[in-house]
Design brief:
Blueprint: H1 24-44, H2 49-53, H3 61-75, H4 84-100, H5 103-112, H6 134-138, E1 164-170, H7 172-177, E2 179-190, E3 206-207, E4 216-221, E5 224-229, E6 238-239, E7 252-263, E8 272-275, E9 291-297, E10 304-306, E11 309-316, H8 318-323, E12 325-331, E13 334-340, E14 348-352, E15 368-374, H9 382-394, H10 406-413
Helix pairs in contact: 3-4
Length: 415
């Protein structure tokens, strides 16, 4: 539309000198209309969702979730009570996350902007399915399991009992061959009067009035309706009004029991044996915990154990080592005849098969390794000196350092 007439002269300040003549009223109307449109656009134009979360358009799902986590922890209404600005900011970042965390919606948004996910001025709304991973983001910090009306599950009163530990000391032979032991255990057991529900005989827990049996109470906090565990019934949905006189309403009693522990052959020091269901009784009829018996094995007088093998050291004399002999060596099952060949050097190990420790929960046994060491007499009689002197003349030894063998050098690499 063409505008006729003469335009008034306008100063730099933008104020019309002729306010009552010409087109001054039309200009004022046009300016007012323009200002209204600016206000409308400012109020209805959404910020870029990537900008809202502070990430780039190439951000991964992990980066988007991390950015949302930080912003949500900052602006969550629980941490900013009575703060409308924080609430609006939280709505904005939550809406942005709802779009960018959904692969299909994010693709539409990248192609068409806000119009592709609900229009430029209209609210896009929330998809409750996108918040199923809020447990991974916030856990139970804000009770987000029911923020968007997805419902919460009532936690039953029954709770699993705690596990117990007892220590049991064994002799070396008992650990090798196995044994049966009695262990005294103090534990909570289910009350036989109320059968674990904590209520007096003939009575039963009643529905909690604070939460109407739901186990949760709701708090309206601005934009959100948040569900929290009921502080009265602790999420059980029921309370005991007439407690059992025998257990005082706890559903359990402390008793001492004797547990028959069958220790299998081949256990080691520190082995734990688990007895399922012999721990603390569960609260309010819950399942019992487990009992763990930790074994402590005493050391043997001369046997040392390495896995399923046994090691011991047996002294022999110089004549026995030089000429060879047969000696009786101890085992855990009695004595065993061991042949010592002539020319045996001190420190030589001999292997006796299947004289070690039985394999735990398996078949076979380890071996016994006997190391012989030549024992040098501390005092010599006159006759012994004469014989040894004669032997020394017949068997001279050159007292010079010997070159180390290759086998010895290889052994040192693994020490």
């Amino acid at each position: 539309m063409a505008l006729g007439g003469t335009f008034p002269r306008v100063q730099r300040t933008g104020v019309c000198q002729q306010s009552e003549t010409g087109l001054a009223p039309s200009l004022r109307k046009l300016i007012a209309t323009t200002n209204e449109w600016r206000e409308f656009l400012a109020a209805n134009t959404k910020r870029d969702f990537y900008e809202v979360l502070g990430v780039t358009r190439a951000a991964t799902e992990v980066e988007i979730k991390s950015a949302y986590r930080k912003l949500a922890m900052t602006y969550h209404p629980d941490r900013n009570p009575n703060n409308p600005e924080a609430e609006d900011k939280f709505k904005e970042i939550t809406e942005a996350y709802a779009i960018l965390a959904d692969g299909e919606k994010r693709s539409l948004y990248d192609r068409f902007g806000h119009a592709g996910v609900g229009g430029g001025g209209a609210p896009t709304g929330f998809d409750p399915a996108i918040f199923q991973d809020f447990g991974d983001i916030f856990g139970d910090i804000f009770g987000f399991g029911d923020v968007f009306g997805q419902g919460g599950r009532r936690r039953g009163r029954a709770q699993r009992g705690a596990d117990l530990r007892e220590d049991l000391h064994l002799e070396f032979e008992e650990a090798v061959f196995g044994t049966d032991k009695q262990v005294n255990v103090r534990r909570h057991e289910t009350c036989d009067a109320c059968r674990g529900n904590g209520a007096a005989p003939g009575k039963a827990p009643v529905s909690c009035r604070s939460c109407n049996g739901r186990g949760q109470v709701r708090y309206q906090q601005g934009f959100f309706s948040i569900a929290r565990t009921c502080p009265t019934c602790q999420g059980a949905g029921s309370v005991v009004t007439d407690p059992c006189p025998k257990c005082k309403g706890e559903g359990r009693l402390l008793r001492e029991r004797v547990v028959e522990a069958q220790v299998p052959a081949g256990v080691e020091d520190g082995t734990r044996i688990r007895f399922t269901g012999l721990g603390e009784a569960g609260a309010f009829g819950g399942p019992a915990g487990d009992l763990y018996i930790v074994l402590h094995v005493k050391e043997h007088a001369f046997f040392e154990r390495e896995g399923n093998d046994l090691h011991c050291v047996v002294p022999i004399s110089f004549p026995q080592a030089a000429m060879g002999t047969e000696i009786m060596v101890p085992t855990l099952e009695g004595e065993h005849k061991l042949k010592i060949p002539e020319g045996t050097q001190s420190g030589t190990p001999f292997r006796v098969r299947n004289k070690g420790v039985p394999v735990l929960n398996g078949h076979g046994k380890g071996d016994l390794f006997v190391e012989v060491r030549i024992q040098t007499p501390g005092k010599l009689s006159k006759r012994q000196r004469e014989l040894l002197a004669e032997l020394g003349e017949l068997s001279p030894v050159e007292n010079k350092p010997q070159r180390r063998s290759l086998l010895g050098r290889v052994k040192d690499m693994f020490v």
